[in-house]
Amino acid sequence: MHTSTFIFGDLxxxxxxxxxxxxxxxxxxxxxxxxxxxxxxxxxxFTPGPRVGDVQTFQVMAEVGVILLMFSAGxxxxxxxxxxxxxxxxxxxPLGIALSIGLGVGVGLMLGWPVSQGLAVGCIxxxxxxxxxxxxxxxxxxxxxxxxxxxxxxxLVEDLAVVVLTVLLAGLGSGGASYGEVGWRVGKALLxxxxxxxxxWKIMPWVLAHxxxxxNDELSLLLALTTCLVVGAVTEAVGLSFALGAFVGGLLxxxxxxxxxxxAKTLPIRDAFVAVFxxxxxxxxxxxxxxxxxxxxxxxxxxxxAGKFAIWFGVVRLFGYPSQTAVRVGVGLTQIxxxxxxxxxxxxxxGLIGADVYNATLAASLVTILLNATxxxxxxPIAPAPIKDTFQTAS
Length: 395
Description:
Elements: H1 2-27, H2 32-43, H3 55-76, H4 79-83, H5 86-110, H6 115-125, H7 130-140, H8 146-172, H9 179-202, H10 204-214, H11 217-237, H12 242-254, H13 257-265, H14 267-284, H15 288-292, H16 294-318, H17 323-332, H18 338-349, H19 355-378
Helix pairs in contact: 1-2, 1-14, 2-14, 3-7, 3-12, 3-14, 5-6, 5-8, 5-16, 6-18, 7-8, 8-9, 8-17, 8-18, 9-12, 11-12, 11-13, 16-17, 16-19, 18-19
């Protein structure tokens, strides 16, 4: 009973903090996620004042927000629309990731880092937070815009690349995995995704049409959530992320108009857990480490903001998109988040980075999320436009 009361007390503090700081930042005309992160800083065990007792419990709860948000994003897309950006996905995304890793290695050599540490930092900064990106695009109503679809395509490939990078980073340490295991895990990903893509075109629209006629809304909603969770569980079982599976589950339902009506019912729950996610990010930050590691934090922040902007601006222009679209994509990807935490933890366990780089990664995520949200807000929204289908040379 004492433990239960303790958890509910922490939960009350988290939601109260999200409400107060969310309202404050809303009045300041700033993105709500900034208020949520600051609420997490206030409730962090690393800062004085009120604090939660068990941050790990909220990390688990935050995953629910990731799953529901990715599921909603999947429903907003359709497989044919995603495939229109196939060249950016198949060529541009790996190119951008490779350039980001090379940037980390190059800067590391100039600063006297070991090559392994520069490689690890490059991997960490190479993946943006899909969670942050989806939240910002949805708030601005730009998920269906040209630059929104390009960014989503790029970040989804980045999420898949995390599987490869995780095994590679572990392999660089003692007792790591072999390159054969990397190939096997990538092969499992393709074997899983190909039949799901086929099902989203041919099977699920027919199933949902029959469910809509035979069942009430409550049972239909259960079908949608079951699809999300089952596909997520399968992707996790084969070594991919649950969040990626939730997105794919949304893709399965996205071809049906009925699915959009059902997804709307999950929005209040989704938004509540999204708030928990960003509050949890704030609780993981240790401000005391900033003073001793400010130089490292500054280096990582510049790499993420300036380096990644230049890389993704160049990649998008290479594929013939206008400068206006390239700027929006470059700005949108200048942050790191949840998957960077995963890569940083793997690198730390493998001995590639120390506690200083790990703490700097957490701090850099906060700084870049704050700056990214502000920069995105400064860009004037534009109307959605169709995505190009051809590889073009930038003019």
